[in-house]
Amino acid sequence: MIKKFHKSKSTLIREDAERIIREIINDESIDENSKWGFKLDLCFLLLHEYIDTGKSELVDEIETITSNLLTDLKFYDEVIPRIGILSYRLFALLIQAKIHGDKKKLEEIQDLLSKTEKFAGVKGNKLLLKYLEENREYYTSLTDELVEIIEKYVIST
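Predicted structure:
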């Protein structure tokens, strides 16, 4: 008896979104500095796919995307995009360290946390506080979700 594998509607939607985002990222007619938001969206999709499938190469791709974003982008002083990039990079490094039991990765995480703290402290406290005040409810719910994800998929494994 042959069993047919049916993908869930959310998986199909995620695959379509990933395909469209990759097309935009690979479109040479679009300025590279305009693609960072799409690359973060791709990281979001890859993280959710990793949660569903456990494929470690997805985490490696998130790590590569965020590493490239941090070195290539021209908006170094803009706080909000940088925090998003650093957040996904931190997730990728945490998951990789957990998967591989890699002490070097844990050192990279410490370094990343230090850089993030320094960046937020030096560059954007006033802007960040204003932005967070305006979007407090959204970030509170997002923080709760992230804590749940970390507890469920990183700490418990």
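Summary: The chain is about 80% helix and 0% strand.
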